[in-house]
Design brief:
The protein is of the alpha/beta class. About 25% of the residues lie in helices and about 30% in strands.
Length: about 250
């Protein structure tokens, strides 16, 4: 199974290692976890069981977002479908989308009624709530694409609809203890926005091609929302420089 992802101005064929890992876990073939890293961070383990978590073991930001969801819901980047399943159990009408074929296969097998392999930019239906969780701003890829995505998301909202999205301000990752001014001096040397990263993933010794991934500080998100006619409301602060926002 493969998927396509825009990297800069190129279209790259991905191997869907993320989806393969989810399928393995669903099939009872859990022998190792996903390994991730970014431009500015070393290898880290993404445990597969975490991607199948229930509501009680979700971070507070995710729990709050799910509790605020109402009406017809679009779960963007649904992964294994954990958020969609909880909302379905609460009686909500949920559509789950992901660009990973493996993720959609698993979400359906776990009981997500309406799951579809689709890029958010190809979505045309309207919703009362759009969820973008687990650093939902990542799908925007780069800062210069941010307003394009926001404008499209705005067209998918019903009257009085909302977008619930989380992200992290990763300035702390540039901090140092030197006398040179810390991360502020480092950031001045960066031509791109400091939240623009390349994201790397490997599974069972195989490397996925890198993808663009965007972390956004709240003020930058709010300014972009203002430019496209959306209101951006700060909802909740997480435990490690992360936050949940509501756009409407």
């Amino acid at each position: 199974m493969i998927q396509r992802s825009s990297i800069g101005t190129k279209t790259t064929i991905l191997k869907d290692l993320f989806g393969k890992a989810l399928v393995d876990y669903q099939n009872g073939n859990y022998v190792e976890d996903i390994i991730t890293s970014t431009t500015i961070s070393d290898d880290d383990i993404l445990p597969l069981p975490y991607l199948f978590r229930d509501f009680k073991t979700m971070p507070l930001l995710e729990q709050k977002a799910l509790e605020l969801a109402h009406g017809k819901v679009l779960d963007v980047g649904c992964g294994a479908g954990s958020h969609s399943l909880w909302l379905q159990d609460k009686g909500l009408n949920v559509k789950a989308i992901d660009i990973s074929p493996g993720a959609i296969e698993v979400a359906k097998r776990r009981g997500v009624v309406h799951a579809e392999k689709k890029d958010i930019l190809n979505e045309k239906e309207r919703f009362d709530t759009i969820l973008l969780l687990m650093n939902g701003t990542g799908i925007f890829q780069k800062i210069d694409r941010l307003e394009t995505y926001l404008q499209h998301l705005k067209t998918l909202l019903n009257a009085n609809g909302q977008i619930l999205i989380d992200s992290s301000d990763i300035r702390y990752m540039y901090e140092d203890d030197s006398a040179s001014g810390g991360y502020f001096e480092v950031l001045k040397t960066q031509r791109a926005y400091y939240g623009e990263l390349d994201y790397y993933l490997s599974y069972k010794g195989e490397d996925e091609l890198p993808i663009n991934w965007l972390y956004l500080d709240f003020d930058t998100l709010k300014a972009a929302c203002n430019n496209v006619g959306l209101t951006c409301e700060f909802i909740l602060e997480g435990t490690h420089f992360d936050y949940l926002a509501r756009l409407f």
